[in-house]
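hey team, just a heads up i'm posting the complex here instead of the shared drive bc the drive is being weird again. everything in one block, sequence lines first with there labels, then the predicted structure for the whole assembly after. its two chains so it's a bit long, scroll down
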Amino acid sequence: MDYLILIFQLIIFPGFLFTAVIGLVISWVDRKVTAKVQMRVGPPLLQPFYDILKYMIKETCVPEGASKIFFLSAPLFGFAAVNVAALIVWQSIIHPQAAFMGDLVVVLYLLTVPALSLVLGSFASKNPLASIGGSREIKLIMAYELPFLLAVLVPVIKTHSIRLADILGAQAAVLAPSGILALVVAIVVMQAKLALVPFDCSEAETELTGGALIEYSGPALGMYKLTRVMLWVVMPLFVMVVLLGGINLNNGWQGILAGIGKYVGLVVVAVLIRNTAPRVRIDQAVRFFWGKVTFVAVAAAILALMGY
Amino acid sequence: MIDVSMHSIILPLAFPLIAGLLCLFVPRRAGQFAAYIALIAMAVMIVLCWPLLTAAPQIYDVNRWIHLKLDALNRFFIVATVFFGLIVTVYSLGFMKGKVRLGEYYGYLLWTVGFSLIALLANEFILLLIAWGFLGLLLYMLVGIGGFSAAGAAKKSMIIIGGSDAVFIFGIALFWQLTGTTRLDNAPIMLHGARATIAFFAIIIAAFAKAGAMPLHTWVPEAGKHGPASVAAFLPASLDKLLGIYLVTRATTGLFVLGGHFHTLIMFLGAATIICAVMMALIQHDMKRLLSYHAVSQVGYMILGIGTGTALGIAGGLFHMLNNALYKSALFLGAGAVESKTGTTDLDHLGGLAKTMPITFLVCLVASLSISGIPPLNGFASKWMIYQGIVEYGKNGSWTWIVWLIVAMLGSALTLASFVKVLHAVFLCKASPEVKRKNITEVGPGMWLPMAALAVICIITGIFATRLPLRYCIFPAVPGSDAFAGTWWAGPATIALVAAFIIGGVIYLISSVRKARTCPTYIGGEIMDTAVISDLPQGKERSVEVTGTAFYLTIRELPVIKSFYSLADKKMFDPYDLGAKIVFYGVGILRKAHNGVLPLYLTWFLAGALLVLGFVLTVPLK
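-- predicted structure starts here --
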């Protein structure tokens, strides 16, 4: 019976369907805002849904000489991981005091799997451009993981716990200086985790013609897109749970509104960055993350250690 | 809990030694016969040792020198040792077939198991030392079986391990002087004063050299690359880790009581090992060498965990040791399978094996994900425990823990990066011309069965971590380690992951993916394989290739990192090479004194005589 509830939570609410629908709506917001920035009209609300459906009926091509099963199942690893990550993050918001399935470390590790599945899929494509794209993605992981770890460990430094419940419970209403710096770092890293400009070097339409995704088509490509759409929900929510106090559901509609406000705020920042920044080269990205961003993250960690 | 009689404890110690002796007498022509002796012996050993897993702790006082003790810590080490012995023996049946010196190979393999059990059970330092010395020698012999190219690697291993053994003897002498006993199970001594500190570090040096922790790791990449893959899987990857970590655990939890600074120092060494070794692994061009650097890097996690001194950290470190032995030997055996089919482990000359060697690919994939700590595999479970141990350690008020935690977690990402490179270069990218020319097929079941068994165990020990390995091996050995500070429901999480995977599969099934079409790869608008890149004669044509070995040149060229790599290239971090430089410099000075001119020798003689005379005259007579 417990497992039936678990499966329901995973598939319907708050897992797959719930998260995917929110993600698709948010991706519409992204496209609409982008269109406004570029003086276009933008797509209708249901366009992202149509797009996903369209992927499902398009033809699938598997490159010659590639392992067909591995090529097609690579997107599913990332999809599975993002679903479980979504479930854990949502549960920590809905039932803040109950321990559920995984803690901070678990979510951190699950959130690297979508990128990993993209890398493995690109390698399975047997295309040099895909390999280059995949290698850029893995280098990007190496680069942003260091500052990201430092940023999300700021609350761990304060609470000495890796449980999401403890981290949520310990956050004060007003952001501490260390928390603000960590949030800045997390926003920058989020941009890379969502493969948005300026850190979309793994796909780089202009020089790699899609890079990591070059050989993917049809439902397999749709699966990657769906995974990314769900990451649009999970990543900001995770940052909110760790650094911004999550969504307070006990406070009535005010709490919910404040939560939605935080979420939309994070999304809008990401969309604005992606529309105003140019793409960086991979070595610039690595240098940026291991240099400036890590510097800020270290400052945040030191402030947290000092109690600020 | 069952009581194990004295005979049942002596028998598994003596049995492999006798069987090994038998193997040595097998004539060269009938070498494969030794393999069957070893296989039967290992199977018998499993039967003999399995009951020890739940045996009651007991002391076996055979005589003054043979003093054994079975307790909650060493009993699972024993079973693990024999298990890996069996796996490697089964694998060797196929892998070593047709090679020379098989009698010696299997004989040494069995002796290694025998002496390891003696070292693990010994409650007497002298006995431990004798077994330890033999193990160093056997490592030299086994690596040397790799042939002419392995001679240098064998020598290097021998010198580093042998040198650390000398330090070990010195440490034991100091320990004996301090405590008046050479028993391992007397009350732990406080670690203050010079003698206790030196004794502690002498023992730690021996353990670090055996486990391959920095800075005494440099024999591992050599032995791993040049020795046979089965030996690499058995010794540097699993058994030497078990022994080294066993000694570290004994030293830090049983023999000595550590103060705060010693914890910091050991954790520093662990963290440094993780990050430096994984950075070296990133840039390797040879699969076995790359794996060896990971064999070093993973020790860092174990030492870091044990160095915390918290129950969770120690338990995590021990669990990580078991897990590492599982996935690392699977990877080495996979490398051996690749080598036996293609004749090389050079990443630049492989590729495309995912389709021709699917089982080896799957094994390496699972093991790679496991070593990178992807949930719900076993590598994640133990790393997760180590992280909690570090957070617990941080409650004592020091700030260093955050550095260790970051390094350990970042090490995971870097490990993933270097294994992604292996998967690309060996299995997924386009086959190199050398591989294309050979008709590659999967290895026989004698080789893939042990590998697959290890991969399956990696999955099982991950999903059922708390129910199986932790419950039977680790929790009894480390009291209080079952109170986790975090949340990880491995079982439900696995069900959720599998269910989500199935949702994706169902979406595939109702979509158009069933009608998937195979089509050639295009690049720049032309079919890749026929795109004209260069006009070269048949057999020498080059195509567009990305092997993956150059993936991390971007990282290599970064400002600070670049200078570290160039220092490492000059072997500035290798105590073996540094030591060699110092020794040869000293020898060079002495050599100048030997110019073959008789008057100079007479001068030396006279000077020496005068010195002796002076000494004799100044010593007062009684």
